[in-house]
Amino acid sequence: MKAEKILVIGANGQIGSELVEALVHRHGAARVVAADLHTGFCGSEVAFAKLDVLDSKALRALVVAEGVTQVYHLAAILSATGEKVPLQAWNLNMNGLLNLLELARELLAEGRLLRVFWPSSIAAFGPNSPRLNTPQYCVMDPTSMYGISKLAGERLCEYYHQKYGVDVRSLRYPGILSSKTPPGGGTTDYAIAIFLSAKKREVFECFLSQDTTLPMIAMEDALRATLSLMEASPEQIKIRSSYNVTGLSFSPAELALAIRQRLPAFQIRYVPDERQAIADSWPQSLDDSRARADWGWKALIGMDQLVDGMLA
Ligand code: NAD
Ligand code: SER
After folding, report:
1. How many domains, in total, are found in the chain?
2. Predicted TM-score (pTM) of this structure
3. CB burial class (10 A; 0-12, 13-18, 19+) of residue 217?
C-alpha cells in the first residue's frame, strides 16, 4: 500500500470518530490527521487540527502543510437539524464540499493528487423515487434541505471528476447504526436512541411510526464500504456521483421486536413528529448492485448481529 497522509474532516462526529480509528489501524497514527470545527477529539494519538471547512485558505494550508493525499470530508448538518436551520445546512453542506473540490482541482493542476471521499445519503432520493429496491439511477426529487444539498453535492462530484479529473468518490449511506459516538441530528437516529432506552429499562418514545421502514447499515459495514471504495483502483470506480450501498432494512416495530426477544420487558410508544415526513420521502430499501459489481461490495452484518452488537 502506498504511504498515504489522510485527513478526516468532521472527525468528532458519529462516523469520523470511528473512521479515524479504522484508518489508524490500517495506516498508523502518524499517517492520519483528525480535524473538526470543535476541539475534543479524544480517540487515538493522531494529530488534531481545529478547522472550519468553510475557510478555504485554512483548508489549503492544512492540506499542504501536512502533505495530505486523501481527504474524508464528513462535516455536514444532517436531515432533522437541517430543517431547523436550512440556510446553514445549505451553506455548510455545499460550500464545504465546493472548497474541497476546488482545492483538489487546484492541486491537480500543480501535479499533486488529492483523493476525496464525500458521503451522500438516501436523503438524495424523494417521494417520486421508487421506494422499494431503489435503483442507482431514477427520479430524484428530495424534499429536505439536507437531501437537496446531497443531490447537488453528487452532481458537483461528478462534474469535478468529468471536467477536471478530480478523484472524488462517494457513497449514498443509509442510516448508520453505532454505539461509540452519538448521532448528529438525523431522521434515522431513533434506531440508535432505542438501544439506550432499552438498556436503561425506559419506555422508548419513537418519533417515527411503527411501520416506517428505512435502509440501515452497521457502522462496521459502513466503514468497510468506505475504505473499500477509497482503496479501489480508479478504473473500478465507474460512478462518480455516488454509489447506492445498503446493509438491511427494518421498521421501528421490527427493531423493537428484535430488542424484545433479548430484553422481554422492553416497551415502545409511537409519537411521530416532523421527522416522519422526511422518512416518508426516503427509500425503504436500496439496490446496491452497482457497488457490488464495480468494487466488490457486500454487507456482512444482518439483524441479529446488529442488535446483539448494539446491546453489547
Ligand atoms: P455528525 O453530525 O455526527 O458529525 C459531523 C461533524 O462535523 C461534527 O463533529 C461537527 O463538529 C463537524 N463540523 C460541523 N461543521 C464543521 C465545519 N464547518 N468544519 C469542520 N467540521 C465541522 O455527522 P455524521 O453522522 O458523522 O455524518 C458524517 C457525514 O456522513 C455527513 O456528510 C452526513 O451527511 C453523512 N451521512 C451520515 C449518515 C448517518 O447515519 N450518520 C447517513 C448518511 C450520510
Ligand atoms: N442518517 C442520516 C439522517 O437521518 C441519513 O442521511 O439524516
Report:
1. 2
2. 0.98
3. buried
